[in-house]
Amino acid sequence: MVALSVLLDVFVPLLPSGVLVITAATAAAAGSAATGQVPDVMALILCATTASVLGDLAAYCLAFRGGARLDRAIARSRRLTTAQERLGEALSAGGGALVVLARFAPAGRSVVSLLAGTAHRRARDFLPWSALAGLSWAAYSVALGYFGAHWLGATWLATAVSVAALFGAGAAAAYVMRPRPSPAEAS
User: Fold this and answer.
1) Three-state DSSP class for 13?
2) Of 115-119, 131-135, 170-174, 179-183, minimum mean pLDDT range
3) How far apart, in whole angstroms, are the C-alpha atoms of residue 108 and residue 100?
4) Residue 181 burial class via C-beta count within 10 angstroms: exposed 0-12, middle 13-18, buried 19 and up
5) Across residues 97-125, what is the average pLDDT?
6) CB atoms within 10 A of CB 15
7) In a designed cystine with 105, which of 101, 115, 137, 174 is the match (CB 3.0 to 4.6 A)?
8) Which residues of 139-151 are buried (b: 16+ CB within 10 A; e: fewer)?
9) Using CA atoms, how far apart are residues 111 and 113, in angstroms rounded to an integer?
């Protein structure tokens, strides 16, 4: 269920995959406290990371082969065109940190994966950053759920605090990624 949610949220960013990963980590922490065993959070991180990369790759490939119709849709939007150019420059310059940062921003993963495909960026420039983004996001989400449960108990409060921390990271990523006015627009 976690893998399917993470895989599909690149196409439907409203899916609560982060909430599901945190909830699964909270449950894993509760299970470890009850049995005295160390939970297999590594399996959860691996599952979420793999699903994230596969979802990114699927969106990238669909956009890469999207054709003229998708290109026209992007060309109609100045914001998407600018975002596509910025992403292309960042990937070409080896600055794929934008891909990692976008993984935390609401719908950022979708936009980056689709724009990398429509810009016909090489997969070898995009996929390593996608893998790092997926791993970073999965490890952060699992850690929030796991440690939140250990510090606050395996309750709804622990899950709510962990989810709030995930949304906080998303808001911070969106703030950092926001378009900045050019010097000509500022004056």
Assistant:
1) coil
2) 179-183
3) 10
4) exposed
5) 81
6) 16
7) 174
8) bbbbbbbbbbbee
9) 6
First to last CA, the chain: 51
Q: Which DSSP state fits 95?
A: -
Place of tokens 């490939």: 61
Angle, helix 78-92 to helix 108-118, in steps of 10 degrees:
80
Q: What tokens were used for 85?
A: 């150019």
| The residue to which tokens 């810009």 are assigned | 119
CB 115 within 8 A of CB 89: no
CB-CB contact of 63 with 110 (8 Å): no
CA 151 to chain centre: 26
- The residue written with tokens 């090489």 in the block is 122
Q: What is the chain's mean pLDDT, rounded?
A: 77
d(CA 33, CA 149): 10
Question: By C-alpha distance, which of 136, 135, 187, 145 is closest to 165?
Answer: 145
Which range of 79-88, 118-127, 162-171 scores highest in mean pLDDT? It is 118-127
Q: Cα–Cα distance between 93 and 130 in angstroms, integer?
A: 16
Contact 19/141 with Cβ under 8 angstroms?
no
